[in-house]
Amino acid sequence: MREELPRLDTHPELRQRLLPYCRLQPGRVWQDPIAGHRVGVLDATEATAVHTLMQGAKATLLINDPPYNMRVGQAATPQLPQLALDEYLTFSRRWVENALAVIATDAHFYVWLGADVRNQFQPLPDFMLLLRQYPALQPRNFITLRNQRGYGTPHNWMWLRQELLHYIHGHPPFQVVYTDIPKILRGYYKQVNGQRRENLARSKSATLRPGNVWVDVQQVFYRMKENVPGCYAQKPLAAIERLVHSSSRPGDLLLDLFAHAGTTLLAGERLGRRVYTCDNDPVFAEIAIRRLEHYRATGETGWQTRTPFPEVDVGV
Asked: In Å, how far are 67, 76, 158 from 64, measured between CA atoms?
C-alpha cells in the first residue's frame, strides 16, 4: 500500500508544483466562515506574524509541535534542518516568547519534542532548561507517547524518543479524562473486602486515567484512516483530543503555531473549540484547511493513502 503523495520535505520539486494550488500566500490568513477558525501562512518566530493571527485574542490552550532539530526518517532537509544547538535554542526562544505574549492569564501550554540519544539527547533537556527562564510557565507533567516501532533496535532500546511537555500559566482548570486501555503490568496486590486483588482487576473499571505514559495511542502511519500523506510529523488525533478534553472547555480558543497536518485544527472542530493555527509553508497551511473541509464533507479524519491534492498529477 503506497501513499499517493510522498513526504514533501524530501521532494522539493513536488512541493513547488503544489504551491499554485494553495489559497494563501506568506503573510495571509484564512478565516473560517463557519466556526471562526483561523489558519495563516506565518512564521512563529516573528512577533508581528503571531499578532496578525491572534488579532488581540488570548489562547487558553497552546499545543505546539515545533521541529525537533534532528533527522526525521533518516533525512535532514531544508524544511527540517539540523541546526547548531545555540541556533535551535534561539529559534525556540523566539516562538516561545511570541506564544507567551498571547497566552491567557490561566492557560495550559503543551510542547511536543524529541530526544536523540546519538546527540546527547538533544534538544529535549536544553529546551527544558530554556523554559526555566520563563517563571510564568510552571512545569506540570512529562508525558511519553508510545512509538509504533518501539521494539528497539539490534544495538539499542530505541534511538529516538518523542515526549510531550506540559506547563501551566496561572491556574487553569483541568478535566480528568479516562481511557479504555487495561492495566499492562501485573502486581500491586492488596486486600479488598478480605479478598487479595492485583492491579489487573482494575482494568475492568470504567474510570481508568491514562497517566503520563500513553500506551493506548497509536502513532499515525499509512494504514490509519486519519493519515495525511505528505506530512512527516503528524500527531495522533486521539492524543490531541485528549489534551483538548482535559485542558480546555467548549468555546475556548486554542493556539497551534506549527499546523503541519492540521490535527489541532481538526480536534478543535470536532470538540467545539476555536483554533488559530499557522505554518510557515503555504502547502501545509493548505493541507490543514483542506483536512477541515474534507472532514466536514465526508466525516473522514484524513485521506489514509490518498492525496490531499487530487487535482495534481503527482507522478512520483
From this structure: 10, 21, 24
Name 100's Cβ contacts closer than 8 Å, sequence gap at least 6. Answer: 134, 136, 137, 169
**Least confident range of 50-59, 141-150, 196-205, 239-248:** 196-205
pTM of the model: 0.90
Q: Can you say whether the dihedral through the CA atoms of 294, 298, 300, 301 is positive or negative?
A: positive
DSSP structural state of residue 179: B
DSSP notation for 195-229: EEE-GGGGGG-S-B--TTEE-S-PPP-TTSTT--T
End-to-end CA distance of the chain: 15
Question: Residue 232 and residue 249: Cα distance in Å, rounded?
Answer: 30
The CATH H-level (homologous superfamily) assignment of domain 8-179+216-298 is Vaccinia Virus protein VP39 (3.40.50.150)
Give the number of other Cβ atoms within 10 Å of residue 190's Cβ. Answer: 10
**pLDDT digit string (tens) for 68-118?**
887 665 555 666 678 899 999 999 999 999 999 999 999 999 999 988 888
Q: What pLDDT is attached to residue 212?
A: 85
Residues in the chain: 316
* Measured CA distances, 298 to 42, 137, 187, 229, 232 (Å): 29, 40, 45, 17, 24
